[in-house]
């Protein structure tokens, strides 16, 4: 277990190095060594130390153009984006504007308070892809991406969501007097993991990577405890039941929804009742339906299904493109650090066809059969 956590720390450190965040990279490399002694982390740390010492200015001030703070890192990122010739589109700005300025987590994700787990996942998936820094370079996109990640991290956790529904969003301005302590407690309640970030959450959601935690803390009980005395044991028990009622209600509703939920109208795999093969109307994407599919749904409804399938297919291509491109960059970095040509050969063999397919894949502009 420690070795797996150590490897994850190394992977995060490499991404930090690529992004220019050297201090955070050092932090994760040291953490990797504390979990499991390994040569990779030691070599990377030594390389960072050598690079830092060789770039240290000998004069009192920094050399021209040398970044010495986070501002320098941001400047390098802007220059890099400029070199790539990225253009800020109206869709990028619109994606940012949907999130900007919102505090309520449900509003950030565009969901209602009764949204199911699958609805939250669908909303996060759409927003995270639209706002990810690799895709969206509009002003405020990074902050919007973080806000979406923080919102989903809370609402996808059953206990945190129950606490959030009870106490509402963090509100710095609502404090004052006796409310200051509760505002601080809420902030700690919703975000108590040390090292998980919106970027780690994105990788976990789309790439299968598990988030890396710092010091594993015992899960905290989110409701306030009161001292128990012989005179107030009954009152405390009743109070605890009342406080737990939102969580119990959520559990019951979740069980009921799973019992009465309808089967999906289609599947990408042939299984169970989904044995009839069909293809979408525009890009010929294969999927499977039940034998009564055409009887249950109208022609227009089937066109909507075809569009949703093609949109989901294109999103999957984008996810594969992002993950494979990052993996290739990581392997090339390992080759540059270690000089091991196996990393380079493996990087050059990485399948980037999903990137080509994603760029050439065109969704229909109208829901009419071609």
Quick structural summary:
The chain is mostly helical and 370 residues long. It contains 16 helices and two strands.
3D architecture notes:
With 370 residues, the protein is mainly α. Helix content is 61%, strand content 2%. A two-stranded antiparallel ribbon has the order 1-2. The termini are far apart. Mean pLDDT is 75; it is low at 54-84, 172-188 and 208-229.
Low-confidence segments, given as residue ranges, are: 54-84, 172-188, 208-229
What topology, given as strand order, has the largest sheet?
A: 1-2
Fraction of residues in helices?
55-70%
Distinct helical segment count: 16
The chain-level mean pLDDT equals 75
State Rg. Answer: 25 Å
Shape: globular
Structural class: mainly alpha
End-to-end Cα distance: 53 Å
Largest β sheet strand count, sense and barrel closure: 2 strands, antiparallel
Q: Please indicate the percent range of residues in DSSP E strands (runs of 2 or more).
A: under 5%
Task: Give me the count of strands.
Answer: 2
Order of helices and strands: HHHHHHHHHHHHEEHHHH
Please outline the helices and strands.
Blueprint: H1 2-19, H2 22-35, H3 39-54, H4 70-84, H5 90-97, H6 105-109, H7 117-131, H8 141-155, H9 158-167, H10 179-190, H11 198-207, H12 233-260, E1 276-279, E2 286-289, H13 293-296, H14 299-338, H15 341-348, H16 353-360
Antiparallel strand pairs: 1-2
Helix pairs in contact: 1-2, 2-3, 7-8, 8-11, 14-15, 14-16
């Amino acid at each position: 277990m420690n070795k797996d956590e150590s490897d994850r720390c190394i992977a995060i450190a490499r991404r930090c190095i690529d992004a220019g965040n050297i201090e955070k990279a050092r932090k994760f490399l040291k953490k990797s060594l504390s979990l499991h002694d390994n040569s990779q982390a030691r070599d990377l740390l030594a390389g960072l130390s050598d690079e830092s010492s060789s770039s240290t200015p000998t004069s009192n001030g920094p050399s021209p153009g040398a970044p010495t703070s986070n501002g320098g890192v941001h400047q390098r990122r802007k220059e890099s984006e400029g070199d790539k010739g990225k253009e800020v589109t109206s869709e990028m700005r619109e994606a940012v504007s949907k999130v900007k300025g919102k505090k309520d987590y449900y509003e950030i994700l565009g969901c209602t308070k009764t949204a199911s787990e699958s609805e939250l996942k669908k909303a996060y998936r759409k927003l995270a892809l639209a706002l990810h820094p690799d895709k969206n370079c509009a002003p405020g996109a990074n902050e919007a991406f973080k806000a979406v990640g923080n919102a989903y991290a809370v609402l996808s956790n059953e206990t945190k969501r129950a606490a959030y529904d009870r106490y509402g969003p963090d509100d710095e301005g609502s404090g004052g007097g006796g409310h200051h302590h509760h505002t601080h407690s809420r902030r700690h309640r919703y975000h108590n993991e040390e090292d998980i970030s919106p970027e780690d959450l994105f990788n976990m959601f789309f790439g299968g990577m598990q988030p890396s935690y710092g010091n594993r803390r015992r899960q905290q009980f989110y409701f306030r405890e009161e001292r128990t005395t012989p005179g107030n044991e009954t009152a405390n028990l009743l109070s605890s039941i009342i406080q737990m009622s939102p969580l119990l209600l959520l559990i019951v509703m979740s069980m009921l929804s799973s019992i009465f939920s309808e089967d999906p109208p289609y599947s990408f795999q042939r299984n169970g009742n989904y044995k009839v093969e069909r293809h979408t109307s525009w890009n010929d994407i294969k999927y499977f339906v039940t034998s009564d599919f055409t009887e249950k749904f109208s022609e227009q409804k089937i066109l909507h299904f075809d569009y949703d399938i093609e949109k989901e297919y294109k999103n999957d291509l984008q996810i594969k493109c992002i993950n494979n491109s990052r993996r290739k960059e990581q392997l090339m970095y390992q080759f540059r650090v270690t000089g091991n040509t196996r990393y380079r050969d493996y990087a050059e063999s990485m399948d980037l066809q999903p990137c080509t397919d994603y760029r050439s894949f065109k969704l229909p502009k109208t829901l009419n059969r071609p």
